[in-house]
Amino acid sequence: MIHTATLTIHTNRELFQQFRQIQTTYWNRDTKRFCNDSKINQGIRLYAYRQAVQGFAYYQIEMRINFLRVIEQEDHIKLFSEQYTYAVSDKCNALLSELCAAFPPLLDWDVMRIDYCINIKTQYVQQYVKLMRKGDKPFQLALPTDKYGNQTQKPGSVYFGKAKNKKTTSYAINFYNKADQLKNEKAKQQYIDDAKDVLRIEIQCNAAKIDAIKKKYKLPNKSIRYFLNDEIALDTLIFAIQKITKTADFHVKSQTLQMIRDNTTFTKKRKARLIELIETVSKQHNSIWKYKRTLDERGKAQLRRDLIALEGLGLNAITISDNDRTLSTDEKRRGLKSVIALLMETIEHDT
Asked: Exposed, middle or buried, 134 (CB in 10 Å: 0-12/13-18/19+)?
């Protein structure tokens, strides 16, 4: 449930110089740091730099690590889980020692960023990506922009991350077709075939989110040993998914609208608001978050209450088009399971 992380240690001048003197270390002009990627095939890349703050110099070394790649170089789909902690730690420590015996062990490095992930096996990857694009957008996150400044999404993916006017963000969310990603990277056909029908969900946790996790779970510090935790990974994934799509299954629009009209507990005003919401969101290029942009603060508060009421009926504001030709009549009648339901099924299957 973990893909990669960026780890760090604050060090002294002596270890910094030892790192510089490793035969495979070089100066990277782009990052303006000393870099060593001699272990990149084993999932490890190291950077070192010196910074001066108020007349004092400090030295830092960063490690970017793909945890499972440390012990498994051929599987490009499988993700690290807590059970692999000591196998990865032992192998990583051995690889670091080959470069410099003074490096601290893996579990003593601190987290700067960690990516919690899940691979969901489903034949409906294309449909789920399309549905996620119609979801809500977490507060302060933004869509990526093209070179002309237009908000856009890459084919086969849904991404919410740093706004253009911000230096960083607490976290980013990425839903994508894993096979398409590997195809775009010109990976081996074997890896692309292995990724068939895999929906990858990835939550990239940056400094503020890491601080929030540390506080929530009362962790003593930011050591990576505390973040290689399946419970934390699952909670973080659920938190982010619910921000976009809630927990209800997806139904075709006509069924959803009929169930709202037939409901005897909703007022006429609530029914009218929900019907307007679903009709608007179902239109091409529309989404919950775009609809929300048209509302004032009072309207947004009402929308939150309406979405909770809708979810209480087991309905989602994101609907499947009645004219969707990628699904059969039976598939549309059954609808598609919620992303949270798929996530929990995957967890149960893997354990």
From this structure: buried
